[in-house]
Amino acid sequence: MTSKPNWLAITLAVAATSNVFCIGTATAVESTLKIVRSEPEVGHMAQDFELEVAAGKRSDTVRLSEITGEGPVVIAILRGFPGRQCPACAGQVADLIRHAHYFQARNTEVLLVYPGPAAELKAKSKDFLKDTKLPAPFTMLLDPDYKLVSAYGLRWDAPHETAYPTTIVIGKDGKIDFVNISRTHRGRTAATTILDQL
């Protein structure tokens, strides 16, 4: 008698060896990645992802592994809309934009990740930017239903919270060169600190 395959064991094995998290694919592997992935660490390969573009330099979607070979990548994970637009996030983004020409001179992509419930995410992200036009090399990405922040171990799962504000610098080799995870609403990484890592 032939035994049935153990799909949970197969899924865990695939997830343990996979370094790709593709947003919008509802599979058992995706769910497992949320469990086995931990916070980003310096020296580790950055977990791959693909997210929809809300505004900025690029269009449609961005896949991390397709842009890391072009130069360093900075990822700033914002808090999205935890009941109101986050003033600390707005301050960090304004600081980064003021240094846009320095990032561009270093051939560095800056990805702003805006997490939140999928149904209202586009509208809230537009409200966050208001009349701000993102200069090159900035792109804002949408993280529907916190899939990326959960996969990265950065989901701040508490009332009126969304994600731990985090800044990550990834080198051309795809490895994490710098990470700062804030456990409060403050503690944001300044643009000058990021530029020192490039």
TrEMBL record:
Q: Name one Pfam family in it.
A: AhpC-TSA
Domain Thioredoxin residue range list = 40-198
Please state what class of enzyme this protein is.
oxidoreductase
**Cellular component terms per the entry's GO annotation:** cytoplasm
List the GO molecular function terms.
thioredoxin peroxidase activity
- What is the reaction catalyzed? a hydroperoxide + [thioredoxin]-dithiol = an alcohol + [thioredoxin]-disulfide + H2O
Q: What's a GO biological-process term for it? A: cellular response to oxidative stress
Q: InterPro entries this protein is in?
A: AhpC/TSA, Peroxiredoxin_BCP/PrxQ, Thioredoxin-like_sf, Thioredoxin_domain
Going by the UniProt record, its keywords in alphabetical order are: Antioxidant, Disulfide bond, Oxidoreductase, Peroxidase, Redox-active center
For this protein, the Enzyme Commission number is 1.11.1.24
What start and end residues bound the annotated signal peptide? none
Name the job this protein performs: Thiol-specific peroxidase that catalyzes the reduction of hydrogen peroxide and organic hydroperoxides to water and alcohols, respectively. Plays a role in cell protection against oxidative stress by detoxifying peroxides and as sensor of hydrogen peroxide-mediated signaling events.
Provide the family line. Belongs to the peroxiredoxin family. BCP/PrxQ subfamily.
Name listed for the protein in its UniProt record = thioredoxin-dependent peroxiredoxin
To which species is this protein native?
Answer: Rhodopirellula europaea 6C
